[in-house]
Amino acid sequence: xxxxxxxxxxxxxxxxxxxxxxxxxxxxxxxxxxxxxxxxxxxxxxxxxxxxxxxxxxxxxxxxxxxxxxxxxxxxxxxxxxxxxxxxxxxxxxxxxxxxxxxxxxxxxxxxxxxxxxxxxxxxxxxxxxxxxxxxxxxxxxxxx
Length: 145
Description:
145 residues; Cyclic Phosphodiesterase, Chain: A; alpha+beta; single chain; two-stranded antiparallel ribbon; 20% helix; globular
């Protein structure tokens, strides 16, 4: 992953019609984001054994605030008829993803650097497009201060 593609996902939407996306953006504009701090720590993976496909950093601080914000976003998605998210929200920063479907493992990763916490006062709605080099992201709108 490239540094400019790093992000903490609140809710993945998938393919969305323009009218529905605009309605959701209108509802997200009504959210108040009280500033809070986020700190990253703890390397983890998704998958098991030879099926490990994603490496991520968890949160040392700010997880409850992100869970609350994600619940607010989920509530607005639900009001617009989006299919409910099946899994519990697990805030994390994806570092690496294997492109292979089976048998290919992520390489051994070094321990993550110690990073200073940072202040969060808003969030963004992104469009992602898959390409040869992975996903590329563009900001559709920013919410909060």
